[in-house]
């Protein structure tokens, strides 16, 4: 585990570290209010993922947790907002990589101009997905589109944060599937970026809001025998809640299966 303030990192928070080790050693969900967001299911969610998630929720209920259903309507807009905000910030940040000041440099053989070196370096150094995000972000930040795209996405981000604030006024933690489906094969969605992005439906809201979150395995989907993830979300700087719930759930899985990851040893 990495925790605590780093004086050499301007983005590092100078605040006491929550007692996560103690929380993990004394994990229990008894008396905790656990939220289940109704937007984290439905179309696009694999049946086996929902089955294992519901079983995990029932397990927590059996351990003494109070299960609370939550309505977070802005979560349905999170994917669209994220894929405007993240590419825009990607475009802005990666503008530093010009092939001249540091890092990779291609075409520096004395026959190319500085502009050509930059172009050749970026062509060689950025993968297809990075280039796609740079182009999307550059467009969203361009004159005449900034407010309509990036500005609007930031407003949605605020709504998502407000949904979380209201939710954490009712519950101690929120749980959801980590992804709507189990893992897809390498390259299977390479030609369909939107299908690939949809795998992030459950994790994007908390990424936009800046909350604490963790994922742990909660069994295998019956359709394909692949692992299902359980996401636990807590307010920012409340990481100890994640370890409290995570440790309790993992211990319950060990007791049920004899192993925290899978129900039975795979056949090799």
Brief summary:
With 268 residues, the protein is an alpha/beta fold.
Task: List key phrases describing it.
268 residues; Amidase signature (AS) enzymes; five-stranded mixed sheet
Task: Give the uncertain stretches in residue-range form.
Answer: none
Sheet with the most strands, sense and barrel status: 5 strands, mixed
Query: Rough shape?
Result: elongated
What letter string, H or E per element, gives the SSE order? Answer: HEHEHHHHEHHEEH
Widest sheet: strand ordering: 2-1-3-5-4
CATH topology value of the domain at 28-76 and 146-257: Amidase signature (AS) enzymes
CATH class of the domain at 28-76 and 146-257: Alpha Beta
Architecture of the domain at 28-76 and 146-257, CATH level 2? Alpha-Beta Complex
**Helix/strand/pairing category:** alpha/beta
Fourth-level CATH superfamily of the domain at 28-76 and 146-257: Amidase signature (AS) domain
Tell me the span between the first and last alpha carbons.
31 Å
């Amino acid at each position: 585990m990495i925790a605590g303030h780093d004086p050499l990192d301007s983005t590092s928070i100078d605040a006491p570290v929550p007692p996560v080790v103690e929380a993990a050693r004394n994990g229990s969900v008894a008396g905790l209010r656990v939220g289940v967001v109704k937007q984290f299911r439905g179309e696009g969610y694999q049946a086996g993922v929902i089955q294992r998630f519901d079983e995990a929720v029932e397990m927590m209920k059996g351990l003494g947790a109070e299960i609370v259903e939550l309505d977070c309507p802005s979560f349905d807009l999170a994917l669209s907002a994220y894929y405007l905000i993240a590419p825009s910030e990607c475009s802005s940040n990666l503008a530093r990589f010009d092939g001249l000041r540091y890092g990779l440099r291609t075409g520096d053989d004395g026959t190319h101009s500085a502009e050509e070196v930059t172009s050749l370096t970026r062509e060689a150094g950025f993968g297809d997905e990075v280039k796609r995000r740079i182009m999307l972000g550059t467009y969203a930040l361009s004159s005449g589109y900034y407010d309509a795209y990036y500005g609007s996405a930031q407003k949605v981000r605020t709504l998502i944060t407000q949904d979380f604030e209201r939710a954490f006024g009712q519950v101690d933690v929120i749980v959801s599937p980590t992804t709507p489906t189990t893992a897809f094969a390498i390259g299977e969605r390479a030609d369909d970026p939107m299908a690939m992005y949809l795998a992030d439906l459950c994790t994007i809201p908390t990424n936009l809001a800046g909350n604490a979150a963790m994922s742990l395995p909660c069994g295998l989907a019956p359709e394909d025998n692949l692992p299902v993830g359980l996401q636990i979300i807590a307010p920012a700087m409340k990481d100890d809640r994640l370890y409290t719930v995570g440790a309790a759930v993992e211990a319950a899985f060990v007791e049920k299966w004899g192993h925290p990851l899978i129900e039975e040893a795979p056949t090799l």
